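Usage

Read records sequentially. Each one opens with the input sequence:
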Amino acid sequence: MTVTVENLEKLERKITLTLPLDGIKSEVDARLKRLARTVKMDGFRPGKVPMNVVAQRYGYTVHYEVMNDKVGEAFSQAANEAKLRVAGQPRITEKEGAAEGVVAFDAIFEVYPEVKIADLAGVEVVRLGAEVGEEAIDRTVEILRKQRRTFAQRALDAAAQDGDRVTVDFEGKIEGEPFEGGRAEGFQFLVGDGQMLKEFEDAVRGMKVGESRTFPLSFPADYHGKDVAGKQADFLVTVQKIEAAHLPDVNEALAKSLGIADGTVDALRADIRKNLEREVKFRLLARNKQAVMEALVTKAELDLPKSSVQAELDRMIEGARADLKQRGIKDADKAPIPAEVFQPQAERRVRLGLVVAELVRRENLHARDEQIRSHVEELASSYEKPEDVVRWYFSDKRRMAEVEAIVIENNVTEFVLAQAKVTEQAIPFDELMGQS
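and closes with the structure output:
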């Protein structure tokens, strides 16, 4: 086999592969002979089919397989000898006019680019920080109390107010006609909890048992029910029952019901703080990681392999179709999704992936076994039986690959933050947690 390598545009390369025909023919003959030992054909005993009959029936298929294998092997060998890092699959076409006794192929492909990363000492990154205060613990205690609240029926002349659980019958009509999902009996909801649209809650608030009321309600344009989105309906609602909520006291009984071993309120608050601090740590890491990755992308120079971008585009389009299918969209797998919608995001993902890979290789930031185990144990620590969760992770290679990828990203984040110009910035706890 002889090999030549030609540089085309940017990352594109061409290798010309020349293979001897006698080597191909001998491999085809060997495979046909092996096939003849086991092939079954009408009129012949197994293993007794004449070679010319086997060749006539299977010759083309075997020849095609041998050519694919030989060309693939030749390409891999040539790329390795030339020390080329191949991106994607090569486009291989047979060349005409090859010398007698040989067959020649052109393999056109892309290589991974050289990645130039600017001096990280000049990279500016804002690192966020947040504290878990007593107010956050207080709010969490209130959430836990609400989760364990009980309800008792109010007096018949009591009016519904925020926090009450009401049981109602209702019917809505649009232009005098009922609509799907617009009628219910014995429907329960909490007043002021945001479960219902504001106009519905406003109408029920202040009503008493047995009372009926009609009111207009405008469905938002982005309402999940597409048939009624943006339309106005008239509702008739009747209150059947009003129940007042009772929240448990913050005491030893509450602490024990939440699994606190010694049953003290102090231990409950300490456990809440520990859980909140763990969640804050993960959220801060995610936000700071995002800032680091953004800085890396903007400070790197490289050409993008078209094949890698196309592969990422295909994954994103497939993901979008899967999402549509999950939402119940008919023929989602055939939905026309223009690639240009995802083009910028696909290019950014490929760019970031190449930059991170280069930094990992250059600075030896691979995930170590002890880091992977530590991360899994930290993920499992919030569960009732952490050891079962650890085993669950380690029992699946795909899950462990995801953990390894996260640890590598964490290593990159820590490395960049240690090198870059870092500005510390506090972020309110509520903002970090996405609370208003």
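Summary fields computed downstream for this record:
- The chain has a mean pLDDT of 90.
- DSSP finds twelve helices and 13 strands in the chain.
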